[in-house]
Design goal:
single chain, alpha/beta, 5-stranded parallel beta sheet, 15 helices, 5 strands, 56% helix, 7% strand, rod-shaped
């Protein structure tokens, strides 16, 4: 309860107890037994008890089974249904030897069932144990909530740091290739949109976006002279640049906080018909994320300025996607990409130069 925690913060260690009993002598006896250690208040009818219960801040309420106006079980249920008293312990009290009453009380939510006449030491110890357990439970819940908040803050901090690192790495790769500025970010954006259209969850979309940003990270290990060569590559140079998927995979496999991040880098140059590299895998054997990255990578290659090519007309790009269905591209993903192209009536999905 909020009030209980507030009292603890105010260094008031005493618990507040309400005794609802129509017998004045029993109310007085319970008060005498408990008030040396607790703040004890009382009510003589069910109606008065309900009024005090709903407008006070109680740690424990003792309720006589037999009360005028509102009986004890009805009173217990009304108190338990009050959100402000959700954590309040209810102890039923009676001078009746009927065991069925005790069973009913416990089954219906009472914390304990105590018989009258009271044995002072027994009453005190049972009430004290109930309140100690209640405090322990609440302190545990508070600590769990605190630790959960701390863990969430740490997760957010790590996630933010991961985002910054991934963006920095992507920019480092793009900066290495002076002719493909922004390539990694565009591939990531297209891949995320395809994932969204496939019905992927926001987390899955973000995961594929990460892969898109880092799919060319392996180019860090390729000589600048090859990356930025203005003429066509020789066979030896082409073989060298074909190493970048495996180099990228080795780099990304070391990022244990985002397992599987290497998938996009490793297999984004595989082709649906098995003629790609580095492993020549085909069809659905190519991981779905890599198939998504692959078609986005190919699309951006056609819609951005490269070493010896320029941005191709949108109709020509569309025709190339159609031509690659089932050979270079996954047919299902190609249809999604074609849908995106057809919706891009102003041809905005390209490099801005």
């Amino acid at each position: 309860m909020t009030g209980r925690l507030d009292r603890q913060n105010d260094n008031r260690v005493s618990h507040r107890i309400l005794v609802v009993d129509d017998d004045p002598e029993n109310r007085l006896l319970a008060t005498d037994i408990l008030d040396d250690s607790f703040e004890v208040y009382s009510a003589g009818t069910g109606k008065e008890g309900l009024e005090k219960a709903l407008h006070g801040d109680w740690d424990l309420i003792m309720i006589d089974v037999t009360l005028p106006e509102i009986d004890g079980f009805d009173l217990m249920h009304r108190i338990m249904n009050d959100p402000a008293n959700a954590d309040t312990s209810i102890v039923m009290i009676t001078d009746d030897d009927n065991r069925e009453l005790e069973i009913r009380g416990i089954e219906e939510g009472a914390t304990d069932f105590i018989r009258k006449p009271y044995e002072p030491k027994v009453l005190f110890q049972r009430i004290r144990h109930i309140l100690e357990y209640q405090d322990l439970r609440e302190n545990l819940q508070t600590e769990i909530a605190r630790q959960t908040m701390v863990a969430e803050l740490r997760r957010q901090k790590v996630e933010h740091l991961s985002d910054q690192i991934i963006d920095a790495l992507a920019e480092a790769v793009d900066a290495k290739d002076q002719y493909t500025n922004g390539h990694s970010r565009r591939v990531a954006r297209y891949a995320k949109e395809i994932a969204r259209r496939m019905g992927k969850t926001p987390d899955e979309q973000e995961y594929i976006e990460y892969m898109g940003k880092l799919h060319d990270i392996g180019k860090i290990g390729i000589p600048d002279a090859i990356i930025n060569k203005r003429s066509r590559l020789t066979e030896e140079e082409y073989q060298e640049i074909q190493k970048h998927p495996e180099i990228g995979a080795k780099i990304l496999e070391k990022i244990s906080d985002i397992p599987g991040l290497a998938v996009g880098a490793h297999w984004h140059h595989e082709r649906y018909d098995g003629s790609g590299y580095p492993d020549g895998i085909r069809g659905k054997d190519i991981p779905e994320e890599a198939r998504i990255i692959g078609i986005c990578d190919a699309y951006d290659a056609m819609t951005s300025k490269r070493t010896y090519t320029t941005i191709r007309p949108q109709a020509e790009v569309r025709a190339e996607i159609v031509r690659g269905i089932g050979t270079q591209f996954d047919p299902d993903l190609a249809l999604i990409m074609l849908q995106m192209i057809d919706e891009d009536t102003n041809y905005e999905m390209k490099q801005n130069i």
